[in-house]
């Protein structure tokens, strides 16, 4: 079966002189081109837009809208259409101006047939090259978009793998400490909520969340005899316990995507007033993530149940954290924390339980208990200092719990 030859290219000839227009169209039809004509620039623009028109041959000077007007409008509306301008003797300066404005060529009137054919061939060849380049560019852009999407998905998978690895590591640490109800992840939720309230977003928020998640990673290097001791720690044991921020920092500081979290891990036991450890940093010397974490960790330590004591209410914990602003905690962070409110903080904790798939009945019971505890605490003078000067809400906290911030103003 013989191949069907391609249709001849459509050429629009524009000239207000009927004789010039007719002669050129007849000659080009004899050469095998598909010619259409227009007697003015506005008519030409309409005709060119009716179907694909690879080439327009236009007179420069015409009554009304001239060739320059047509050229500019074709460039704007039909950028893939090539334009050859025809000009009279003495008007070559205008013709050169047409080239600067996007015409592919110009010829003096009346054009010789051989010159006209060569100009048409050059214009169509140049257009084919330009169209091929555009097709290649679009194909390349599509490939880039596809590859970018694939790379983005791959990076997301890597990030998820990193995050799942960190979660598994922290879960193992919590299990070693006999922590209950995913302490580290609750602290991340509280920390992220406070940071959000302070206007922290994007990558910085993610890094602060990782720092909160990994805050106690250094306890891997603390002996069980110290970490899990049920009674009070001796001075030597406190020295061992106080090493865990530096141990954690040394563990992760050389991992590039944990650079900022490593600073939070190192600083998470520092205090606003400079009485923390290990470097006795104060105020804005402490990383903002560590300052936010300090409040979040204290809240969770005070409101979580332990085998040896019952957690206090959110109302008591909020009051104690407010009291310790400007000493243990950054006052700006405390303001953001207070803006969340008791109901908002309780909601965060309940949402964590939902993520763990607790039965609805248990969730409702927990909410009822929290509300009962809150109402009871309103009439309970439980904030009076104990004989040792420690708030009643933190009495009975053992060694492992004291190293977490319990808003007591003592160790941890």
List the helices and strands and how they pair.
Blueprint (H helix, E strand, L loop, with lengths): L9 E5 L3 H13 L3 E5 L2 H10 L4 E5 L7 H11 L4 E6 L4 H10 L3 E4 L4 H64 L6 H15 L4 H12 L10 H4 L7 H7 L2 H9 L6 H9 L20 H16 L10 H10 L7 H25 L4 H19 L20 H4 L10
Parallel strand pairs: 1-2, 1-3, 3-4, 4-5
Helix pairs in contact: 2-3, 6-7, 6-12, 6-14, 7-11, 7-12, 10-11, 11-12, 12-13, 13-14, 14-15
Structure in words:
By secondary structure, the chain is an alpha/beta fold. The chain has 2 domains: 10-137, Response regulator (Rossmann fold), CATH 3.40.50.2300; 165-402, Hypothetical protein af1432 (Orthogonal Bundle), CATH 1.10.3210. Helices cover 58% and strands 6% of the residues. It has 16 helices and 5 strands. The protein has helices at residues 18-30, 41-50, 67-77, 92-101, 113-176, 183-197, 202-213, 224-227, 235-241, 244-252, 259-267, 288-303, 314-323, 331-355, 360-378, 399-402, and strands spanning 10-14, 34-38, 55-59, 82-87, 105-108. A 5-stranded parallel sheet has the order 2-1-3-4-5, sandwiched between helices. Residues 10-124 form the Response regulatory domain. Residues 122-157 form a coiled coil. Residues 384-393 have a biased composition (Low complexity). It comes from Pyxidicoccus fallax. This is Response regulator.
């Amino acid at each position: 079966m013989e191949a069907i030859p391609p249709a001849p290219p459509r050429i629009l000839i524009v000239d207000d002189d009927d004789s010039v227009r007719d002669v050129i169209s007849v000659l080009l039809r004899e050469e095998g081109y598909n010619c259409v004509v227009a007697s003015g620039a506005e008519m030409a623009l309409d005709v060119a837009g009716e179907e694909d028109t690879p080439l327009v041959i236009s007179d420069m000077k015409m009554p009304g809208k001239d060739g320059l007007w047509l050229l500019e409008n074709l460039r704007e509306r039909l950028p893939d259409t090539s334009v050859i301008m025809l000009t009279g003797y003495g008007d070559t300066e205008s013709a050169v101006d047409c080239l600067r404005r996007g015409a592919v060529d110009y010829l003096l009137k009346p054009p010789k047939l051989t010159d006209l054919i060569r100009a048409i061939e050059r214009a169509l060849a140049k257009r084919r090259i330009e169209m091929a380049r555009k097709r290649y560019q679009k194909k390349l852009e599509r490939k880039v978009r596809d590859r970018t999407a694939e790379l983005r998905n791959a990076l997301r998978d890597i990030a998820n793998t990193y995050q799942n690895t960190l979660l598994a590591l922290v879960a193992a640490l919590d299990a070693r400490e006999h922590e209950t109800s995913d302490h580290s992840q609750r602290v991340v939720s509280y920390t992220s909520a406070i940071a959000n309230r302070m206007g922290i977003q994007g990558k910085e928020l993610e890094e602060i969340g990782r720092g909160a998640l990994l805050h106690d990673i250094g306890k891997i290097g603390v002996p069980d005899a110290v970490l899990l001791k049920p009674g009070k720690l001796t001075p030597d044991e406190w020295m061992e316990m106080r090493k865990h921020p530096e141990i954690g920092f040394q563990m992760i500081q050389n991992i590039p995507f944990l650079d900022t979290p490593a600073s939070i891990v190192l600083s998470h036991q520092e205090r606003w007033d400079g009485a923390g450890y290990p470097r006795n940093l104060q105020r804005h010397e402490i990383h903002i993530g560590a300052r936010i974490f300090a409040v979040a960790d204290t809240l969770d330590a005070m409101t979580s149940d332990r085998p040896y004591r019952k957690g206090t209410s959110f109302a008591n914990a909020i009051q104690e954290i407010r009291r310790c602003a400007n000493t243990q905690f950054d006052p700006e962070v405390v303001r953001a924390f207070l803006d969340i409110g008791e109901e908002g903080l309780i909601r965060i904790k309940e949402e964590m339980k939902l993520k763990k798939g607790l039965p609805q009945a248990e969730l409702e019971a927990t909410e009822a208990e929290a509300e009962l505890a809150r109402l009871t605490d309103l009439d309970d003078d439980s904030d009076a200092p104990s004989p040792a000067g420690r708030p009643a809400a933190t009495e009975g906290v053992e060694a492992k719990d004291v190293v977490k911030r319990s808003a007591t103003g003592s160790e941890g």
